[in-house]
Design goal:
InterPro entries: AAA_dom (IPR025669), DNA_Partitioning_ATPase (IPR050678), P-loop_NTPase (IPR027417)
CATH topology: Rossmann fold
Helix content: 40-55%
Protein name: Chromosome partitioning protein ParA
Bound molecules: adenosine-5'-diphosphate, magnesium ion
Mean pLDDT: 94
CATH architecture: 3-Layer(aba) Sandwich
CATH class: Alpha Beta
Shape: globular
Radius of gyration: 17 Å
Function: Involved in chromosome partition. Localize to both poles of the predivisional cell following completion of DNA replication.
CATH superfamily: P-loop containing nucleotide triphosphate hydrolases
Number of domains: 1
Order of helices and strands: HEHEHHHEEHHEHEHEHEHHH
Number of strands: 8
Number of helices: 13
Distance between the termini: 22 Å
Amino acid sequence: MNDIVKAPRILAIANQKGGVGKTTTAINLGTALAAIGEKVLIVDLDPQGNASTGMGIDRKSRKLSTYHVMVGMAQIREIAMPTAVPQLDVAPSTMDLLGVEMEIAGDKNRAYRLRAALKGLAEDGGEPYTYVLVDCPPSFNLLTINSLAAAQAILVPLQCEFFALEGLSQLLRTIEQVRNTLNPDLTIQGVVLTMFDGRNNLSGQVVADVREYMGDKVFETIIPRNVRVSEAPSHGKPVLLYDLNCSGSQAYLKLASEIIQRERKLRAA
Ligand code: ADP
Ligand code: MG
């Protein structure tokens, strides 16, 4: 196998707003990708650790975390933990991550810590991952910047609500800044509309506006608001394990296949 095949596709799941569905998308898109044959690593880069908890990794078992990777005390493969989903591992986070910014402030390569760690993952001779999904915190801090510097593309969850577009234009400016400085190759994988409520006229209007603004960058798949999706994390399970037939699970499976199709097109181009 050559290096190109071994290198995973790295997607940063980012939006500076909280509560838009980043973590939910990391967990459930990761699960759906694994279910259709990919080998997936979710990197939890949010000190809240919701992606780790939502995948059933309890806090006590997190001896090593993304904190240790960011400060250079562990390799990412060492901290990766298996989950109930075959082919899906999680690099968990803990609150320690809150201190990373201070600890690495003096390093001129501080924005590339995650990139270096992920490069090691592709080169260490271990079983290769095909997708790495980085769950970002809800702000443009050094952790998010690290993930945008490491990723090939950004995937933006956008909640179908009134202020969606406002946050999006700020995000686009940040992506442009990252391209101009840290990572010229960063592309936008796509915008995922989340928590769509068919009974609410506003949701439909937001979808139309975002599609007009972002064109075919917006995934066709729209994630509906679905109570099963919000219940699943308290059981430490992705919704696909909690209730495979619910509308949320089906939407995330559809999103995964849309992403794979886009990747194939990209590779063929
Ligand atoms: P973020 O990571 O962007 O802060 P989360 O993924 O944690 O956002 O989602 C915020 C809240 O909304 C969580 O309580 C989550 O369970 C809930 N949620 C996310 N997506 C859906 C959905 N499609 N249907 C219902 N609830 C959802
Ligand atoms: Mg989150």
